[in-house]
Amino acid sequence: MTVTSPRRAWKIRFRDLRITDPVHKSELLAAVDRVLSHGQLLMGEEVESFEREFAGYCGAPYCVGVASGTDALYLALRAYDIGPGDEVITTPLSWIATLNAIQICGARGVFVDIADDLNMRADLVEAAITPATKAVMPVHYTGRLCRMDAIGAAAQRHGIRVIEDAAQAFGAKRGGKLAGAFGHAGAFSLNPMKVLPACGEAGAVLTGDAKIRDKLVALRYLGTVNREVCHWPSLNAKIDTLQAAMLLVNLKYAEANVRRRIQIGRFYSNELAPFVRCPEVVDSPTDRDVFFDYTIRAERRDELKAFLEEAGIEIKIKHPILMPDQPAYQRLPRQELPLARRVVGEILSLPIHEKLTDAEVECVAASVKRFYRGRKRAVASLGHRRNAK
Ligand SMILES: *Cc1c(COP(=O)(O)O)cnc(C)c1O
Q: Which of 65-79, 160-174, 179-193, 362-376 shows the lowest mean pLDDT across its residues?
């Protein structure tokens, strides 16, 4: 069973991956041109610069560039020797890459229920720890940071690792500390959907441990040291030099993208709070969430989805199936996850990306309001609201 919308010409797209700004585009093309001209198409200077800048931005000592976010998760687990017989505690509500990484390295995913913020409940982590538990993998879902203080404290009491799935949370922070820098390792996806996008597949792992960094460098290239001697069976999961070169360009645009997403998120939350359950907006110099997705919880969710699609607005349910309920994982022991199982029937993600115009954002909000109010007109202005604040 697939849950896809019929293809149509959307008036408002959920994402828009085109590079439309001419200056930005010419910078990307110049970066590609440089790599093609010097001819070092694997590893090299661009990869090293990207790793240095990415680690610097996130405030972590080391970054290892890899081929995807899934590779980042998988290799981070491998770097900490997590494998067969081990358990990794995580959330049931994430993109399936999270659980696949745990299971493919040979460990078993154990789930704790979520809270109203759609993230794993930090207060349930400790009770889920067994002698087999080697790590907890919090996912900063939709770009909202998990309760890393409580998760870190529980992990420390039991001597287990914290490996963050920060794929959706580039730029999110608490107490001035950035997503991916809280745990023993932080894994990022940099695919074109994400807040810091490459122009294709890419990922990165952050860590503060130089030994783990060295091991990740080996693991991303077949487990080899000095490119010849294989110490651990692994895959080829190096970051592409062309992607690293383009990421260096896109890093410069990331902060503006985050700001625009927060602005849109704040408008949606102001407008829609009387009608649906909206995410809280956290935005100060030291604490913020980044709105990778803007996910509401809605009554009559499926009707609202059909109504918005009819109005030409592309929306997504992310994700309609909890990870442990996927066909691939029917053999995992079934766990009670009451809130997560209820919430998957209520969640709906509205369009949010930096290319949306104010008029488009206003149209999305007005359409949601129109659905709940019936036929009454419901229009507000983003500019007006901004001035009023
Ligand atoms: C995107 C994503 C991944 C996987 O990243 P890829 O680069 O697509 O492999 C993992 N976890 C979460 C939460 C994601 O959103």
A: 362-376
Q: List the alpha helices (DSSP H) in the chain.
A: 22-38, 45-58, 69-79, 97-104, 125-128, 148-158, 210-219, 241-272, 301-310, 338-343, 358-373, 382-388
Compute, in angstroms, the gap from residue 330 CA to the centroid of ligand 1.
22
**Confidence bin at 167 (pLDDT 50/70/90):** very high
Where are the extended beta strands (E) located within 293-384? 294-297, 347-350
Q: Ligand 1 pocket test: which of 15, 191, 243, 292 has the largest number of ligand atoms within 8 Å of its C-beta?
A: 191
CB-based contact 307:315 (threshold 8 Å): no
Q: Is the pLDDT of residue 388 over 90?
A: no
Atom of ligand 1 nearest to the CA of 70: 9
Whole-number Å distance between alpha carbons of 261 and 143: 11
Question: Rounded to whole angstroms, how far apart are CA atoms 247 and 50?
Answer: 7
pTM summary value? 0.94
Cα gap 349→294, rounded to integer Å: 5
Per-residue pLDDT at 387 exceeds 50: no
Say if residue 129's pLDDT is above 80: yes
Do 95 and 324 meet the contact criterion of CB atoms below 8 Å apart? no
Instruction: Look at residues 236, 252, 229, 170 and name the one whose alpha carbon lies nearest to residue 204.
Output: 170
Tell me the best of 74, 103, 168 to mutate to test the pocket of ligand 1, counting ligand atoms within 8 Å of each CB and taking the most: 168
Cβ pair 119, 140 in contact under 8 A = yes
d(CA 99, ligand 1 centre) in Å: 11
Q: Is the dihedral of CA 296, 299, 303, 307 positive or negative?
A: negative
Half-sphere exposure of 377 (CA within 13 A, CB side): 2
Answer yes or no: is pLDDT of 337 > 50: yes
How do strand 87-90 and strand 108-111 relate by DSSP bridges?
parallel
What 3-state DSSP class applies to 218? helix
Distance CA 86, CA 74 (A): 14
d(CA 305, CA 258): 26
pLDDT in tens, 210-256: 999 999 999 999 999 998 999 999 999 999 999 999 999 999 999 99
